[in-house]
Amino acid sequence: MDSGIFDMLVDRVINERLDSIVLSNEEYKQAQRDIGAVTKEVEAHGFSADELKLIDRLVCAYTAEGALSVKLSYAQGFKDCVLFLKEIGVIKTE
Fold first, then answer.
1. Model pTM?
2. CA distances, 77 to each of 18, 37, 53, 72 (Å)
3. What average pLDDT does range 20-43 have in this prediction?
4. Distance from C-alpha of 7 to C-alpha of 28, rounded to nearest angstrom
5. Which residue from 9, 49, 62, 64 puts its CA 20 to 30 A from 87's CA?
């Protein structure tokens, strides 16, 4: 499979299909509520603007790392599925 097409497929599935699945998941909704509670704690703490920017940069870095991990994991799972389907003869290559 062409790498460009594969990357586009993974991006589309992650950004559209997975989002709808995740957003309807109760554990994810609880995680969002937990984030809201911690956000209120941070806001009440009285950090300076510079400290808040530093915290924001750290959170953004962790978020970017997590998003990349999800994308790489999904892509690898998709590749593994294709290899499995080839091994059991569902997909024929010649």
1. 0.66
2. 14, 34, 36, 9
3. 93
4. 25
5. 9
